[in-house]
Amino acid sequence: MKAPLITLAVAGAIAGPAFAQAGEVTLSTTLKDYSGRKAYLAIYLTDAQGHYQKTLYVAGKKPKYYRHLTDWAHGSGLRPAEFDGLSGASVGAGDNLTVSAQIADNLIDAGYEIRIDSAVEDQQENRAEVKVPLTRAGAGKAVAGSGYVSSFSYKL
User: Where are the domains of the chain?
Assistant: First the structure.
C-alpha cells in the first residue's frame, strides 16, 4: 500500500510546478504624440535568457503587418495560436491601451521580462522598445519606451 502513495507523492512533486497558479496582470501603455498612422504593438513575455515565452497582447488586427513586430514575430513564429483571442485594434498617437493577461505566479521574480515591440506603417519599427523585469517590486512603476511608447506599467 505504501508504494502507490510514494509514487503519487513523487509524481505530484514533479508535476506541481507545471500547474502553477495564474494571476491577472493589468498592462497599461500610453503612446507618445507622433504623426502618422496607428501603431501596432506586441506585448509579450520572455524568459531570463531573453527567449520568447508567451504573447500577452497584440494591438493591430491585420496579421499581414505582424512581421514588422520583429522580435515578437520571430519568437512566436507568427503562429495564429500564439495570438488568437489576444488581439485588438491598433493604437493611435497619444492614446492609452489597458488590457489584462494571465501570467503564472511562479514567473514573477524569476527573471522573466515583459517586452513590447512597436511599428507604424511607413515609419520606424522598434524591437523590444520596452523591457521590464516582471517583479513584485516593479509593479505599478511606469517606464518609458525607446520608440512610440511614452509609458508602460503593469499591476499584479
Answer: 39-155
